[in-house]
UniProtKB/TrEMBL annotation:
One of its GO terms (biological process) is coenzyme A biosynthetic process. It comes from Methanobacterium alkalithermotolerans. This is 4-phosphopantoate--beta-alanine ligase. It catalyses: (R)-4-phosphopantoate + beta-alanine + ATP = (R)-4'-phosphopantothenate + AMP + diphosphate + H(+). Catalyzes the condensation of (R)-4-phosphopantoate and beta-alanine to 4'-phosphopantothenate in the CoA biosynthesis pathway. Residues 203-234 form a coiled coil. The keyword Hydrolase does not apply. NCBIfam families: phpantohe_syn_Arch (NF041123), PRK13761.1 (NF010324). InterPro entries: PPS/PS, PPS/PS_sf. It is an enzyme of class 6 (ligase). The keyword Protein transport does not apply.
Amino acid sequence: MIPESHPRYESLLLREKIVKAFKKGILADSGMIAHGRGEAFDYLLGEKTSNPAKSAIKAGAAAILLSKNPVFSVNGNTAALVAEEMVELCRISGGKLEINLFHRTPQRVNAIEHVLKHAGAEKVLGLDDEKLKYLEGIESPRATASASGIYDADVILVPLEDGDRAEILHKTGKIVITIDLNPLSRTSQMSSISIVDNIVRVLPLLIQEINQLKREKKENLQQILDNFDNQKNLKESLHVFKLKK
Ligand code: PTJ
């Protein structure tokens, strides 16, 4: 039981969620290490959504609204931290949820499917009983792609990746949106829109932004997207990190 008065209360709650998810077989063991790395970056970020992250969220929302087939990729950490929000994101955007794992086992796929269904998902792609395709150029199990999901997507959200896939997806002409607290990661550098912020803060803001932009004309959404420069935004994100006392 974490006392609410603890100065690191919010952060410890997330840690507790992560540990529970590991014990339930949802999270890969290295998912805990990935979370710790994220915590360190978040600490330096002041645990707040920066202005560059807000701009990236807006561009991401515009891309999702303009998309014909938006797909949201779910791994262990995403399922552990924001399952309900991922389901809500699908509901408001007409997008699809697809399980895609680096450390893929049938047990973990089942455990994550269960979490998503419990959170309200009607359909989950990327399961083992589906005849999955494989993306060329990716050696890891992350190459799996559902024919109507990641394989066909024009816009794909890939939170907390380890970089092997974002580059390939981007090269195939898809708009790749990532959420990664590390602006220097290969994923952040290779994606079309990199949101440098904690996934637990991003999802509610992305949902809010989509709801706000829903009634905008296509030309206005396209303008938001065209005006977004990912490399410039990543540089601005780097400036936000507090490296002095
Ligand atoms: O569930 P699986 O099998 O697909 O495995 C997923 C992990 C996360 C283990 C795998 O993708 C991995 O090893 O990722 P990396 O290389 O550790 O990269 C994860 C990135 O996410 C790092 O740059 C972290 O800083 C970042 N990160 C960690 N927690 C968060 C985060 N970014 C946003 N929000 C977080 N809460």
